[in-house]
Design brief:
453 residues; alpha+beta; BirA Bifunctional Protein, domain 2; Rossmann fold; 3 domains; seven-stranded mixed sheet; five-stranded mixed sheet; 13 helices; 24 strands
């Protein structure tokens, strides 16, 4: 059961330390959020799962980590300077600024007035001065996407690794978009993190790979706990495609605020590599690009048989980390009615995503023997490297169980006086609430099996 409203998720995230409004003590900053003690763990676990699937589990994809500051020429050649904008209108009555495509019935959502300006393009890229003098002649952009730094590093990667087509380059990193109206909690923000992979293929094989990567990405989200019934695939209409796209399939998820994009898989053709290639005269490039590019690179590969130079086509699965975190939280959230008439809130997160993998709880607070035994077990589980294991020395077993249900901890392990006598502990399962006794010597194997599953 997903959350009925965004308000419930926002309240949970604030109360339990997942997500906070940035600079809240000064009134906050719209469209920017901070991740708290549990949020940073969940976010890192989701990124780690993506990296494992994209890089570690495959031999045809390499990873990079590139700079945020971007040479303006890169974004000029990529078409972002000209096209990366949203339609902006001003309300003449209340002075609100709104995206034109977010208007309902042509009226201001703030005051209901229809006295609006004509739409005009608003550039979404953040611009910053580079160097000590602010005269407008030396500036850079904060990258609006991680993709362009992958394309400009194409030759560096192909020259330093033994790959042939098809192969990919993956990256996780920050991107910045000066959204007119950030909205729906962390769904649409001004500072975001992306998980993007550019998969380079031969022209003519792009449609096959586009279908392959769409299927792979849907299957991956299911492994992160997203119910397939909550997903729809949208074949983006031709008139709504990005300037670089031949075709895009959006994985749409049923968020609390409605059906919205979770991830996009785009067929970018040879647009990007062609845009950044110096001498295009001897290359077959289908994209319409500026032939006066100042790049000094030849972003192409040589066919080992024909010796012809080929500009690869690109299939791009691109997901926002924040949108992924929000979807995972929403899908895992549920409220259950217990036999005593009370309720418990549970985050049924997949164990590999859970911020805390296990809680070790001494039955009695500050009892030296129990605490020492619990610390030994905690350290043994922590040394397995499967994620954070927490020692809870508060003494209130019931409250600890409820708290860890609410933050998604898969198992709680109670060390009691019987543990000191016979070397067994109580294992409690988050989802079923079932409890069983287990030898301490067997706890590590049980823990590994829980997280691996």
């Amino acid at each position: 059961m997903a959350a009925e409203s965004m308000d419930k998720l926002v309240a949970l995230c604030k109360r339990r330390g997942f997500i906070f409004q940035t600079n809240e003590i000064y009134g906050g900053l719209q469209g920017v959020y901070d991740y708290g003690p549990l949020g940073v763990e969940l976010k890192n676990n989701l990124k780690r799962a993506w990296w494992n699937a994209m890089v570690y589990e495959r031999d045809d994809i390499e990873g990079i980590d590139s700079s945020i500051l971007t040479n303006p020429l890169v974004l000029k050649q990529s078409g972002h300077e000209e096209t990366f904008s949203d339609p902006l209108v001003d309300c003449k009555s209340c002075k609100a600024r709104i995206r034109a495509d977010h208007l309902k019935d042509g009226k201001c959502p703030e005051c209901g007035s229809d006295d609006l300006t004509d739409p005009r393009p608003f550039n979404l890229m953040f611009k910053t001065n580079v160097g000590p003098i602010e005269d407008g002649s030396s500036f850079a952009y904060l990258r609006p996407e991680t993709a362009q730094q992958i394309f400009t590093n194409f030759k560096n990667v192909i020259d330093s690794t033994p790959h042939h087509l098809p192969f990919g380059i993956a990256q996780i990193g920050k991107a910045f978009r000066n959204e007119i109206t950030p909205r729906n909690f962390i769904f649409r923000v001004r500072e975001l993190e992306q998980m993007e992979m550019e998969f380079f293929v031969r022209p003519g094989e792009d449609e096959k790979w586009h279908k392959t990567w769409t299927d792979l990405r849907v299957a991956w989200w299911e492994k992160q706990g997203i119910n397939k019934k909550s997903i729809e695939l949208l074949d983006v209409p031709k008139n709504e495609l990005a300037h670089y796209s031949k075709a895009t399939i959006d994985i749409m998820y049923k968020y609390p605020h409605g059906l919205e994009e979770l991830e996009g898989i785009a067929n970018r053709t040879d647009f990007d590599l062609g845009s950044h290639t110096r001498d295009q005269s001897k290359l077959r490039i289908t994209a319409k690009v500026d032939k006066n590019t100042k790049s000094n690179a030849k972003l192409a590969v040589q066919d080992p048989e024909t010796k012809e130079w080929v500009v690869p086509y690109v299939i791009e699965p691109a997901a926002g980390v924040e949108r992924g975190v929000l979807a995972v939280l929403n899908e895992a959230y549920r409220v259950e009615e217990l036999e005593d008439g009370k309720e418990r809130t549970v985050l049924s997160l997949k164990p590999h995503l859970s911020p805390i993998k296990a809680a070790v709880i001494p039955l009695k607070k500050n009892n030296e023997d129990l605490v020492n035994k619990a610390k030994e077990l905690k350290n043994a589980l922590q040394s397995l490297g499967l994620g954070r294991v927490l020692l809870e020395n508060s003494g209130n077993i019931g409250k600890n169980y409820r708290r860890h249900d609410e933050i998604g901890t898969p198992i709680c392990i109670t060390v009691d006086f019987e543990s000191l006598e016979d070397g067994t502990v109580t294992i409690r399962d988050r989802d079923t609430m079932e409890q069983s006794r287990l030898d301490i010597a067997s706890v590590s194997d049980h823990f590994k099996k829980t997280i691996d599953n």
